[in-house]
C-alpha cells in the first residue's frame, strides 16, 4: 500500500511543525508497514517570493494528484502590504475552493494532562470529546448579492439542497464511528435559510436511523459548549455559525498550539494545524508541534481509514504530556520545557512504546 502526500509547509513555524509531523508520519508508515510518498511544494509568502504568486498552478496540480494534502501555515509581516489577492492568506481561500473542501472538521478533545490549563472547571471539562463540522464553501461568506454603500450594507445567506445534503451525510457517517449523536445547529426561529437547513438534515437523517439527531439554536449551542461540553458528539453547522463555534470549542480544550483540523471534499482533503505562522517565534525552536502531529493523525483516520494509526498517535501525544513534556506555550511549573524537536522525539518514542505494548497486549495509557 502506498499513499501520495503533498506537503505545503508554507511560512514561519509552518516549516518547523510540518517537519515534526512528517517525522511522525514516517514512523507510522514504518510501524504499520505501508509507504508514504512525499512531494513538497511552496505556498504563501515563500511562493510569492519565488513566483510572485502565493499559489501557483503547479502547486495546485500536485494537490490534485495527491491522496492527501498537509499544510503548515502561511503569512508574515514581510508580505502584509501586498495587494489582497497576492497575500499569503489569499492562497488558503483559493486552495480550499479549488479542491472543493466543503467540510471543515475541528475536534474538541481534552488531554487529561492539560485539563488544569483550561479556563473551564475540571469537572465540566473531563471526558469532553466532540467534533465541529463546519460547512466551508457556501453560506453567507459566499452568497450574492453582497456589498455596502453610504446608507446600508448587505450580505446573503443561501444554501442549496445539495450543499446541505452532502455535509449532513458526512456528519451522520462520522457519528456512526463515534457515539452516534449529531446536533444540527441553526437559527430556524428567525432565518428561513435555517428552516430549510433543518428540513434537509431531517430528510438525510432517514437514511441513518441508528444515529440520534437533535436540533439546537446557535445561541443556545454557544452557551451549552461552555456549560456542559460533554453532551456533544458531532456538531453539524453552517459556515458562519461554525466559524464562531469551532473557535469556542477549540479554546475550551487548550492552547492554539494544540488544535488540529481537517478540510474534506468529495475528492480531496487537506490537514493543517489551526494556528498561523507565528512570526514572533519562527526559527527559535519554540513552536508546539502537537497541533500539526494531531492533524497528521486526522489524515490517517479520514483519508486512509487507518483509525488504529490515528489512535496510537493520539495516545502517544497523551502519554508525552502525561510524562510532563511541554513546549513554552503550554508550560506550567514542575514540567519539562522542551523544544519543537525534543517534543517530537518524545512523541515518536512514546508512539513506538505504545505500538509495541499493543503488539504484546500490555497497553495502558
Ligand atoms: P498565529 O496563530 O500565528 O499566532 C498567535 C500567537 O500564538 C502567537 O503569539 C504565536 O507565537 C502563538 N502560537 C501560534 N501557534 C503556535 C504554536 N504551534 N506553538 C507555540 N505558539 C504558537 O496568529 P497571528 O499572529 O495572528 O498570525 C501570524 C500570521 O499567520 C499572519 O500572517 C496570519 O495571517 C497568518 N495566519 C495563517 C493561518 C494559516 O496558515 N492557516 C492561520 C492564522 C493566521
Radius of gyration: 20 Å
Write down the overall geometry: globular
Structural class: alpha/beta
Give me the number of helical elements: 12
**CATH A-level architecture of the largest domain:** 3-Layer(aba) Sandwich
Number of strands: 14
Task: State the low-pLDDT regions, or none.
Answer: none
Q: Work out the helicity level.
A: 40-55%
CATH-defined topology of the largest domain: Isopropylmalate Dehydrogenase
* Unique ligands: nicotinamide-adenine-dinucleotide
By CATH, the superfamily of the largest domain comes out as Isopropylmalate Dehydrogenase
Distance between the termini: 29 Å
Q: Which range does the strand content fall in? A: 15-25%
Report the top-level CATH class of the largest domain: Alpha Beta
Largest sheet: 10 strands, mixed
Number of separate structural domains: 2
Order of helices and strands: EHEHHEHEHEEEHEHEHEHEEHHEEH
Question: What value does the average pLDDT take?
Answer: 95
Q: How do the strands of the widest beta sheet line up side by side?
A: 2-1-3-12-11-4-5-10-8-9
Q: Overview of this structure, please?
A:
The structure is a single chain. The chain has 2 domains: about 1-110 and about 255-365, Isopropylmalate Dehydrogenase (3-Layer(aba) Sandwich), CATH 3.40.718; about 120-245, Isopropylmalate Dehydrogenase (3-Layer(aba) Sandwich), CATH 3.40.718. Helix content is about 40%, strand content about 20%. The chain contains 12 helices and 14 strands. The protein has helices spanning about 15-30, 45-50, 55-65, 90-100, 120-125, 160-175, 190-205, 220-225, 240-250, 290-300, 305-320, 340-360; strands spanning about 1-10, 35-40, 70-75, 105-110, 130-135, 145-150, 155, 180-185, 210-215, 235, 260-265, 270-275, 325, 335. Helix 8 (about 220-225) runs parallel beside helix 9 (about 240-250), helix 10 runs antiparallel to helix 11 and helix 11 (about 305-320) crosses helix 12 (about 340-360). It is globular, with a radius of gyration of 20 Å. Bound molecules: nicotinamide-adenine-dinucleotide. Nicotinamide-adenine-dinucleotide (NAD) binds near residues 17 and 291.
Amino acid at each position: 500500500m502506498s499513499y501520495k502526500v503533498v506537503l505545503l509547509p508554507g511560512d514561519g513555524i509552518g516549516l518547523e511543525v510540518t517537519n515534526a509531523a512528517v517525522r511522525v508520519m514516517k514512523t507510522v508508515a514504518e510501524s504499520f508497514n505501508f509507504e508514504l510518498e512525499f512531494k513538497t511544494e511552496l505556498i504563501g509568502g515563500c511562493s510569492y517570493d519565488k513566483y510572485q504568486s502565493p499559489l501557483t498552478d503547479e502547486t495546485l496540480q500536485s494537490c490534485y494528484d495527491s491522496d492527501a494534502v498537509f499544510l503548515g501555515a502561511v503569512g508574515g509581516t514581510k508580505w502584509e502590504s501586498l495587494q489582497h489577492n497576492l497575500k499569503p492568506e489569499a492562497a488558503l481561500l483559493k486552495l480550499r475552493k479549488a479542491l472543493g473542501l466543503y467540510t471543515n472538521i475541528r475536534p474538541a478533545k481534552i488531554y487529561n494532562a492539560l485539563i488544569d490549563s483550561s479556563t473551564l472547571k475540571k469537572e465540566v471539562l473531563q471526558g469532553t470529546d466532540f467534533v465541529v463540522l463546519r460547512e466551508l464553501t457556501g453560506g453567507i461568506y459566499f452568497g450574492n448579492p453582497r456589498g455596502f454603500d453610504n446608507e446600508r450594507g448587505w450580505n446573503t445567506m443561501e444554501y442549496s439542497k445539495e450543499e446541505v445534503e452532502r455535509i449532513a451525510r458526512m456528519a451522520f457517517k462520522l457519528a456512526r464511528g463515534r457515539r452516534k449523536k449529531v446536533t444540527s445547529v441553526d437559527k430556524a426561529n428567525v432565518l428561513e435559510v435555517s428552516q430549510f437547513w433543518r428540513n434537509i438534515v431531517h430528510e438525510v437523517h432517514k437514511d441513518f436511523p441508528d444515529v440520534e439527531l437533535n436540533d439546537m439554536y446557535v445561541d443556545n449551542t454557544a452557551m451549552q459548549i461552555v456549560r456542559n461540553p460533554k453532551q456533544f458528539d458531532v456538531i453539524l453547522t453552517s459556515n458562519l455559525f461554525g466559524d464562531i463555534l469551532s473557535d469556542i470549542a477549540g479554546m475550551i480544550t487548550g492552547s492554539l498550539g494544540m488544535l488540529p483540523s481537517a478540510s474534506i471534499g468529495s475528492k480531496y482533503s487537506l490537514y493543517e494545524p489551526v494556528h498561523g505562522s507565528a512570526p514572533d517565534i519562527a526559527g527559535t525552536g519554540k513552536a508546539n508541534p502537537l497541533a500539526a502531529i494531531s492533524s497528521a493523525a486526522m489524515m490517517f483516520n479520514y483519508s486512509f481509514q487507518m483509525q488504529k494509526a490515528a489512535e496510537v498517535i493520539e495516545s502517544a501525544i497523551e502519554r508525552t504530556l502525561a510524562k510532563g513534556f511541554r513546549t513554552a506555550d503550554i508550560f506550567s511549573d514542575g514540567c519539562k520545557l522542551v523544544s519543537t524537536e525534543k517534543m517530537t522525539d518524545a512523541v515518536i518514542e512514546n508512539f513506538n512504546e505504545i505500538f509495541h505494548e499493543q503488539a504484546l497486549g500490555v497497553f495502558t495509557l
